[in-house]
Amino acid sequence: MTELYQIGDLAKRAAVSTRTIRFYEEKGLLGAPARTSGGMRLYDERDVNRVKIIRRLHHVGLGLEDIKRLLGVSEDASRAERVEKTLSVLNIEAERSRQKIAQLQAECLEREEAISMVSKCRECAVESCPIHCPPQHHVI
C-alpha cells in the first residue's frame, strides 16, 4: 500500500511551504491531488519527488514555465527522452551561468582598475598632479 501524505507532510518532506505546494498546483506544475471525503489533499511519494525536482530546477535558474514544459514532456515521453530533455535544458542553463560569471568577472576587473586609478588620487596634490600624474589619471 502506498503511503499518503497530507499537504503539511508533503511540504516538510520536500522542504517547501504549503503555500508553495498550492502555488505549484495552481500553475499546473503539480497535478490535482487525491482528496479525502473531508476534502483534505493527499499526496504520494511521486508527488514528493516531483516537488523536489521542481524546487531544484527552479533553484538552478529555470523559470516555472520552462519547468512546466519539461514536466509536461515527462507525461508523454519515455524516461530516456525525459532525461535527455532535462539534461539539454540544464546544459543550456549551465552555459548561461558561465556567461554571467564571465560578465561579472569582467565587471569586477573594471571596478578593480577604477579602484586602482582612484586610489592614486589619495597621494596626489591637484596643484602638482599634472607634473606627477599623466592626464588619464585625473579622475577626481
UniProtKB/TrEMBL annotation:
Q: Provide the alphabetized UniProt keywords.
A: Coiled coil, DNA-binding, Repressor, Transcription, Transcription regulation
* A GO molecular function held by the record: DNA binding
Domain of life from the UniProt record: Bacteria
Q: Which InterPro entries match?
A: DNA-bd_dom_put_sf (IPR009061), MerR-type_HTH_dom (IPR000551), MerR_fam (IPR047057)
Coiled-coil ranges per UniProt: 80-114
In this record, what's one Pfam family?
MerR_1
* The keyword rRNA processing is assigned to this record: no
Domain (HTH merR-type) ranges = 4-73
Question: CDD domains given for it?
Answer: HTH_MerR-like
Output this protein's name: MerR family transcriptional regulator
